[in-house]
Amino acid sequence: MLLAHVAVVAILVVLTGWALQFHFEAPPVPLVWPASAVALAAAYRLGGSAVVTVGLAVAVIHMLREADPLAAALLAVGTGGGGWIGAWLFRRWRFDAGFARVRDVGILLVVGAGAAAVLSALAASLGMAGFSTGFSETFRLCWIADTMGVLLVAPMLLSARRPAHIDPETLGWLIGVPAVVYAIYAGGLPEMLALPASYGVFPLVMLLALRRSVPVVALVLVGVAFIAISCTAMEKGPFVQADMRPNMLALHAHLAMLVLTGLLLGASRNEHVEAETRAREHLRMLARAGRISALSTMAAGIAHEINQPLCAVQSYAQSAQRLVKRNAPAAELDSVLERIVRSTDKAAAIVRRMRGFLRGESMSRAAHDLNELVGEAADLVRPECRRQRVELVLDRAQRPLPVRVDAVEIEQVVVNLVQNALESMPERESGESGRWVCVATSLASAQMIELRISDSGPGLPDGDTAALFEPLSGGRHGSGLGLPIVRSIVEAHGGEIRASNGPGGGAEFCIYLAAASAAGEKGND
Predict the structure, then answer these.
(1) How far apart are CA 227 and CA 232, in angstroms?
(2) How do residues 176-198 score in pLDDT, each as one tens digit?
């Protein structure tokens, strides 16, 4: 904590030392006053004790510049008090220092231009002008200086995090954008080109906000502001008028719009990323619910499937007991024990398949043979097919079909579609031909692999097949989530699903996935 307070004082000394070099002509108010931003960020990140540190540092800085002790004390109280109230409002309004939402930018604007800037400007105006006729003009300029300090410096201090590493692109942005601004403001451009060129920084900041995090954007914006203000105060750049008087208020408006553009775009990008993350998490929850629902439906068949090896184990164990009682040769006993081991392995494999399908927590994509995934899924649904007396036909390609996918999710696609096919089939009447579900794989092209599930049911209803994939649009036996989950999984893998009626009248779902080599080239992993 002591080191943190020392760092706050160091930052305050550096920033105010720079700011005090540039000021309005009359009254001599700094163009930007960053002490309010330091007080706000320090109080929010370190607590109320930082307010005392900032206030004392501000007072000492002004006393060293031979300021009136009362004015220095007023400024210290106003700066620290504004930071304390601003930090309290931040916490009350649940401000996110990482600017994860657009509303956080609005909160910074309200708090910075309101509580922090107003209190600091009021104290400074009283110390400089008292209640004289110049109070209103002094207060106006002090409020502008404090507000600009908060907008320019506070985002950097609030969002600053220790970087794990700085990649070359980030380093390029940190150096490149300020270099462009320096080229515009240093006075090398003709007057008629300088002002239009200054607005060319906006696309750079917008692109930066869409590609990099808010802390990087805030750091670049501080560099841009320091260069622009310093050059303009030295009567260089596009905001210097014909009579060589810097138009600082126009520059302030320009920089404020630039900062708000970068922060708003960065916050919008964060909201978009967060929404995508929530959507993926929602998909995982739906997928797990779908797996539980599928296993619940198939529970009777799976119980029967496990019961078979368990009954075999019991039978073989009884045989082994009889062999032991009559002192049978070891070779006969070994054969029976081997059958017990095979039966237990079969039961364990069924349980492992169920647990892996139910949990599906890895969400990792790797190269798999689609034929093998279809076989694993078929082992899960085959007991239910037998129970309902539906023939499960596997028509797999003779060659391996490599795809880069999450194995559990693709197995769930097959399970959901087969389960939908079973639910759509009416009970078999006497004399009616057999019912079937076919799962086929094939190579659709050099880059695409096809997975087709068809059945002998009544087929799909007439109309827009896209409506089938909307939530809660399932049939009367389903939950209405099976097909939406299927489509979400397929599209998350960069694939496509199509629904139609087959030539024989049943429903047919065709799924197209990129082959493993093509998926790797697209960076799907």
Answers:
(1) 8
(2) 999 999 999 887 778 778 888 88
